[in-house]
Amino acid sequence: MLANEIYEILKKEFGDGILEFKEEAPSDPYISVEPSKIFDICHTLRDSSELMFDYLMCLSGLDLGESLGIVYHLYSFKHTHKIVIKTTVPKETPTLPSVMHLWRTADWHEREAFDLYGMIFSGHDNLIRILLPYDWEGYPMRKDYNEPEEYHGMRVPY
Amino acid sequence: MGLLNRLDDPFEGGGIILGKVEDLLNWGRSKSDWYLHFGLACCAIEFMALNASHFDFMRFGTIPRTSPRQADFIMITGTVTLKMADRIKILYEQMSEPKYVISIGSCSNCGGPYWEHGYHVLKGIDRIIPVDVYVPGCPPRPEAMEEGMIKLQKLIREQALFNGKDRIEELEAKKALKI
Ligand code: SF4
Question: What does pTM read for this prediction?
Answer without folding.
Answer: 0.80
